[in-house]
């Protein structure tokens, strides 16, 4: 192992001492500057490797005895540098300069050799670990009577990562302390946190997960699982095991088998450090209570449950109270961007009425306070008076919704903001919503462009009506919204549904249909009495749905959202009557791609108005019917974690302007059919680790303005035909660690304004023709930046060196 070579947790200090000696020499070693620069470069490269090994040794509790080779090399280097410091022009030691120069070169060579061996051994360790996990997977597959091959196993990012707590919290110091005492008490296996919706149960759980003492005790083995009303426990158990093990398991046959895997693994592997599993938003019911009873018996494991319901069978419970009066005032003013000493502070009586109307619930205070930010005092007074009329105590969740509804009253003069908020009820509870999907809906329903739609989303965020989910430090600068997501509190989603239900069915602008099993609403069965005039329809089904669709007459619908949870799914026959449909979004929430069929085997060719589609976890060959009519109006298509297979989908989409493919692991090459779509302006293929090459025909895409190949780690080069894309403005190959060179004639792309090559570790230099790109702004790492300073100094001002902060929260899949 690499640890055998370099020892334990003191390695960073050992290397750091030599590095400091190089820097301390300063001008005294001016005679040896060239070779010292080489040594400094080697130490720069070794330091992060050693740091990584330090952290792994610390985590794995590996022996910390330093090896003699490394310590000897570092000590020899320090002594040599001390001697070099005395070599000055004019004294006798100067005659020894050639001798010391050779010694320094020997040190540089030894460091190079050490680094090569270190990298080789780390590579060997990775292969050993992969082999070991493959062997373990084969055992699991045999236990599951599936006889699977180890090749079916995939390394994954843990699906149960604890989300970051991004907002400032108020009044949780005492609850965290009390909850921690209950959870860490000897004999306490499970603690249930209960409170009404909007009290801050999830925030409290996250605050606890990020507590330093909790993190030290559980040593990173903290898992966060959102459960909600109709959980798939088999999938939850599977995700927990995958998060703990870092590998993808085969799909288990039932809940019992998945639970047995989890229990077996905890018995064997979690003895040294206990595991904390947080089950957020558990709903009441005999099935949930029975499964909690099972989890209660897991070895080496602590369970924290948050729920609106109490579970009397479990003795340890914690009831989260609303904020006290002082903290309620603090949160209200914080949300309204007011200081307690501000001269613009509302009078005490008004604040008291608002706090009373919000019943000191954090969610209500935050939403109401945000809606009152920078509003005249008269609006504060009216709000306080209106909220005091209904009393200060909510007898039901309906009263909480009515309280939150008041935050939307002032949006009557901003109807697009209000309507967009209502549209968000069409997504599943606790779903991460892609900003690109929000943009697509706004473009069709409100005729907004990307900038206007993002301004609408920012307005919702500023009013605390949605929560932002930061993915990476890319921001909006490249206008790539496919990897920007947001969420919405389930109470606020309920508010949108509550407001929709106030209108008669036939007058609703939107329909949200949540079907459990085959239990469809009665009005739908007798729809001839209620023909729908909705422009947006959302239908959510679970794994028990048989795809037996009632008739629906919805000729005015322009946006259709299908939220599904099933291995197989039949598209509704009424789809072909939606002649005005412009946006189709199909999202599967099962762990495997859905195999889809349709009643007439021609699911899309009957939609003449279709402009934009998005598919999540869908088996794409459904759309490969050779007899399918062209979708001549389709402009944008997006795939997320889809299965492509041998598809010829592109032949039926001649007028596409934008293609986005993200996390589709079986996409090994861009189909040639894509290169025939000459109108294409944006091509984004990201996180597709199977992509190895681009077709030579890519040069046919003469209208392409954006080519984004972010995080395609096995892509090795761009073909020379890329230089025929004379309209290209943005080229993004960031995180393409295998790309070793760019086309020699890249300088012929005179419209190229931005090249993003951050974290392209194999790319050491660029073609000299790049100097001809006058408009270019280059984002890169330090090594390329240093090369550019020497090779093309006039480009130095156009180079931005960027170090990205790693963040994998957005992969909570």
Question: In a nutshell, what does this entry contain?
Answer:
Helix content is 36%, strand content 13%. With 813 residues, it is α/β, with parallel strands linked by helices. Strand 22 (777-780), helix 22 (782-791) and strand 23 form a beta-alpha-beta unit.
What would you note in describing this structure?
This protein is an alpha/beta fold and 813 residues long. It has five domains: 2-127, no CATH class; 173-319, P-loop containing nucleotide triphosphate hydrolases (Rossmann fold); 340-487, no CATH class; 508-637 and 647-658, Leucine-rich repeat, LRR (right-handed beta-alpha superhelix); 667-813, Leucine-rich repeat, LRR (right-handed beta-alpha superhelix) (Alpha-Beta Horseshoe), CATH 3.80.10.10. 36% of the residues lie in helices and 13% in strands. The chain contains 22 helices and 23 strands. The strands form four sheets. The protein has a 13-stranded parallel β-sheet, with helices on both faces. A five-stranded parallel β-sheet has the order 2-3-4-1-5, with helices on both faces. The chain has a three-stranded antiparallel β-sheet with strand order 6-8-7. Helix 11 links the parallel strand 3 (275-282) and strand 4 (301-307). Helix 6 (173-184) packs across helix 7, helix 9 (233-245) packs parallel to helix 10 and helix 17 (415-423) crosses helix 19. The longest helix is centred in the N-terminal third of the chain and has 47 residues, at 97-143. Belongs to the disease resistance NB-LRR family. Pfam families: LRR_14, NB-ARC, RPW8. GO terms for molecular function: ADP binding.
């Amino acid at each position: 192992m690499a640890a055998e070579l370099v020892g334990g947790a003191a390695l960073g200090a050992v290397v750091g001492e030599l590095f400091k000696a190089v820097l301390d020499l300063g001008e005294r070693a001016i005679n040896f500057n060239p070779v010292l620069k080489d040594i400094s470069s080697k130490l720069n490269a070794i330091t992060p490797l050693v740091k990584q090994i330090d952290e792994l040794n610390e985590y794995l509790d590996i022996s910390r005895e330093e090896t003699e080779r490394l310590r000897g090399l570092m000590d020899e280097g320090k002594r040599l540098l001390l001697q070099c410091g005395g070599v000055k022009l004019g004294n006798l030691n100067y005659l020894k300069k050639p001798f010391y120069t050779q010694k320094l070169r020997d040190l540089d060579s030894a460091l190079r050799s050490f680094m090569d061996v270190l990298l080789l051994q780390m590579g060997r360790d990775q292969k050993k670990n992969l082999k070991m996990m493959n062997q373990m997977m084969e055992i699991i597959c045999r236990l599951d009577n599936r006889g699977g091959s180890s090749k079916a196993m995939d390394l994954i990012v843990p699906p149960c990562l604890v989300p970051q707590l991004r907002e400032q919290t108020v009044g949780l110091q005492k609850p965290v302390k009390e909850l921690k005492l209950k959870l860490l008490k000897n004999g306490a296996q499970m603690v249930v946190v209960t409170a009404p919706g909007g009290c801050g149960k999830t925030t409290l759980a996250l605050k606890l997960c990020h507590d330093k003492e909790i993190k030290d005790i559980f040593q990173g083995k903290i898992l966060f699982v959102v459960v909600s009303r109709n959980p798939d426990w088999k999938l939850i158990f599977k995700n927990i095991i995958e998060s703990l093990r870092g590998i993808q398991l085969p799909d288990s046959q039932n809940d019992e088998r998945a639970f047995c895997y989890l229990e077996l693994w905890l018995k064997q592997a979690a003895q040294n450090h206990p595991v904390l599993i947080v089950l957020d938003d558990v709903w009441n019911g005999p099935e949930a209570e029975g499964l909690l009873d099972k989890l209660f018996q897991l070895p080496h494991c602590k369970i924290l449950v948050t729920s609106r319901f109490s579970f009397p069978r479990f003795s340890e419970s914690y009831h989260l109270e609303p904020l006290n009066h002082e903290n309620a005032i603090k949160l209200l003013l914080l949300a309204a961007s007011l200081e307690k000493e501000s001269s613009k502070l509302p009078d005490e009586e008004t604040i008291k009425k608002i706090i009373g109307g919000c019943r000191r619930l954090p969610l209500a205070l935050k939403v109401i306070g945000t809606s009152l930010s920078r509003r005249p005092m008269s609006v504060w007074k009216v709000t306080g008076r209106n909220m005091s009329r209904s009393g200060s105590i909510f007898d039901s969740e309906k009263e909480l919704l009515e309280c939150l509804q008041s935050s939307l009253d002032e949006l009557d003069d901003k109807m697009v903001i209000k309507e967009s908020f209502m549209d968000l009820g069409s997504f599943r509870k606790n779903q991460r919503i892609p900003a690109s999907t929000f943009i697509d809906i706004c473009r069709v329903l409100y005729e907004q462009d990307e900038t206007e739609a993002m301004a609408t989303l920012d307005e919702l965020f500023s009013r605390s009506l949605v929560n932002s989910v930061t993915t990476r430090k890319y921001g909006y600068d490249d206008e790539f919204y496919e990897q920007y997501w947001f969420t919405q509190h389930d109470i606020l989603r309920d508010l949108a549904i509550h407001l929709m239900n106030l209108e008669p069915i036939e007058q609703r602008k939107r329909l949200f249909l949540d079907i459990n099993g085959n239990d469809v609403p009665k009005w739908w069965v007798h729809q001839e009495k209620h023909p729908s005039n909705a422009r947006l329809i959302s239908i959510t089904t679970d794994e028990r749905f048989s795809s037996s669709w009632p008739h629906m007459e919805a000729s005015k619908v322009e946006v259709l959202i299908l939220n599904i949870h099933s291995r197989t799914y039949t598209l509704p026959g009424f789809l072909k009557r939606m002649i005005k449909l412009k946006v189709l979004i199909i999202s599967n929430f099962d762990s495997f791609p859905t195999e889809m069929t349709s009643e007439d085997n021609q699911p899309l060719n009957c939609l003449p108005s279709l402009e934009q589609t998005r598919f999540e976890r869908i088996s794409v060959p459904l759309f490969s019917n050779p007899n399918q009519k062209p979708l001549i109006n389709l402009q944008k298509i997006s795939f997320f974690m889809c299965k492509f297979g041998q598809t010829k989908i592109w032949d039926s989409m001649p007028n596409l302007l934008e293609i986005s493919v993200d996390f589709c692991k079986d996409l090994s090459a861009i189909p040639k059919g894509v290169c025939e779509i000459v109108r294409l302006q944006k091509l984004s293929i990201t996180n597709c680790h199977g992509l190895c090459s681009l077709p030579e025909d890519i040069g046919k895409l003469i209208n392409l303005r954006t080519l984004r190949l972010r995080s395609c780690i096995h892509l090795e080069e761009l073909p020379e035909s890329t230089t025929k894309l004379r309209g290209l403005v943005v080229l993004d190959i960031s995180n393409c660690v295998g790309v070793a060179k760019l086309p020699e004639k890249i300088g012929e792309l005179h419209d190229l304004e931005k090249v993003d090559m951050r974290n392209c570790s194999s790319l050491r230099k660029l073609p000299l023709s790049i100097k001809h790109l006058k408009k270019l702004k280059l984002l890169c790492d330090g090594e390329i930046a240093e090369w550019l300073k020497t090779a093309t100094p006039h480009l130095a001002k156009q180079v931005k060196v960027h170090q990205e902060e790693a963040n994998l929260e957005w992969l909570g899949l």
